[in-house]
Amino acid sequence: MMERMQENKLLRQIMRGRLSRRQMLRRAAALGVSASAMSALLAACAREEATPAASPTVAAPGGVTPAASPTAAPAETPAGTAELGPATFQYEEPQNKGGTLIEGSFADAKTLNPILVSDTASGAVSDLIFNSVIRVDPQTTEPVGDLAEGWEISDDGLVYTFTLRDGVTFHDGEPFTADDVKFTYDLFMNEATGSPRTAEMTERIKTVEVVDERTVRFTLNFPVAPFLVEQMVYGIVPQHVLQDVDPAQLAQDPFSTGQKGRTIGTGPFMFEEWVKDDHITLVKNPNYWEGEPNLDQYIWKVVPDATVVAQQLKTGEIDYGDIEPSQLEDMRLQPNVNIYKYDTFDFTFYAYQLDPEKTTIFQEKEVRQALLYALDRQAMIDAIRFGIGRVAVGTMPVMSWAYNPDAIQNKYEYDPERAKQLLDQAGWTPGPDGIRQKNGQRLAFTIYTNAGNKIREQYVAVFQEQWRQIGVECTPQTEEWNAFLDRITGTKDFEMFLVGFSWGVDPDQSTMWKCSAYEGGFNMNKYCNPEVDQLLDEALRTTDQEQRKELYTQMQNILMEDLPSAILDFPQALSVVNKRVHNLFPNDVDDRYNAHQWWVES
């Protein structure tokens, strides 16, 4: 109890912007975190990343690029205590067949249909049921074949011809063919489905043609440098199951909501059961084309919050899950787990509602800019993330080869006086209650985030306090994950929201910033700037990496001036795996690529 009181006192001081970096170290010691440990975390936060993500290799025009698979290294004896570091991808020959692996999360899936997936939980489960044409190698970030065994690219970069694997079957025994690939992409490009990827797919893909049952040809509207790692990495659904379903009813169909024998793919696990807000159970696919999985069963277990995830990782009720930075020191004391800390393509951001029909409060960029200047993001990362993350400069994550912080003009370092000046200039003056007003409208709004995510809940509490210091009234509101997800991606009924997001391995960010991505993308706040659209399009059409980097830098500088959304931080992930689990390698690119090789000790 006393530790919790001290922790709350620390947070209140951060909220008020009163705690220095040196004081942070002193307070950390009072909370039981050694100064050396905290200094190490802060140093890790500040250091430059050793190796940026590699650019996908594109096949030579007219040449065939064979499918590849990660090379397994000999296994080493597991350490006797929990370790902290990235996965080493050291494969171990299975010593046991059978058993169950339980992954824990406080978020349930929204759908099992890869056409409709827009959240982490849905993606995590559906990735075990379905295969894609292409996967991204988690060690190199290059495209490798999944359902494709090879591909050719035309000289002009407009035509991609994929040769599909022979002998692959769906879970019901029906053969997988090129017709299923065409059918899947036709659904992606059908606006009636409500897929979040429709806008991007239809903009880039002109036609999908079946050449023969093992060959499918994609013709693009224009050259797309990241086509393989952006458009070809989504699960393929069975035509024979869904061909008679009205695309407008796809989300409600039992295939999407989970029905044994109907929710079928070609992946290593088959759907068994979904009890909402409790668990999803999958069983092994004995006829999986890469080989029969070692596990009998996989369970996605839903628990109330991140605290329960950590507790059940310690007790062994959960085998795999992510923890929050505040839980790290305690978890390192547990003898039954391994801890993996690794860089990600993730970021935390809040979005301003820019649709004037919903609210006019954020129409002036001075208001948007002032709010970001008023947040002490470094102090938030130090206190709430325990230094495990980095203040965002621009929109590109540190793992990206397009990360270019020195060239970003507006960095929005903590400056509450600058925030007040901007609001004054825009005509927002303090009212009788201290809250700024203009033309009879108070500078007051609600910010939504998802319940159970303690970091985001603490972030919005800091927002409330630090924005009050400049005369802004913010009311935090938490919401159950699926209701929250529907609010920000469906009804878009919000003034502001805070959430996490993850880019792909390529720096193309069209899905969030393009005007067309408001319907059928992740431009959730109706931002539109034709100059940004032009830069994004130009960057897609060139394969020269340095030229693309410069274009993305120009794009970021416009975004940082307009500030339609405020990217706060680039966090690292903390994943915990029970030591009885083998061959599971947490990483931010694809931790499911070898799910058939996972095994557990009996």
TrEMBL record:
Residues spanning the membrane: none
Keyword check for Signal: yes
PROSITE patterns: TAT
Family: Belongs to the bacterial solute-binding protein 5 family.
InterPro entries per the UniProt record, alphabetical: Peptide/Ni-bd (IPR030678), SBP_5 (IPR039424), SBP_5_dom (IPR000914), TAT_signal (IPR006311)
Ranges for domain Solute-binding protein family: 142-515
Any Gene Ontology CC annotation: outer membrane-bounded periplasmic space
Annotated region described as Disordered, given as residue ranges: 55-82
Organism: Thermalbibacter longus
GO biological process, one term: peptide transport
GO molecular function (one): peptide transmembrane transporter activity
UniProt name for this protein: Peptide-binding protein
Highest taxon, organism lineage: Bacteria
Keywords for the protein's UniProt record, in alphabetical order: Signal, Transport
Pfam annotation, one family: SBP_bac_5
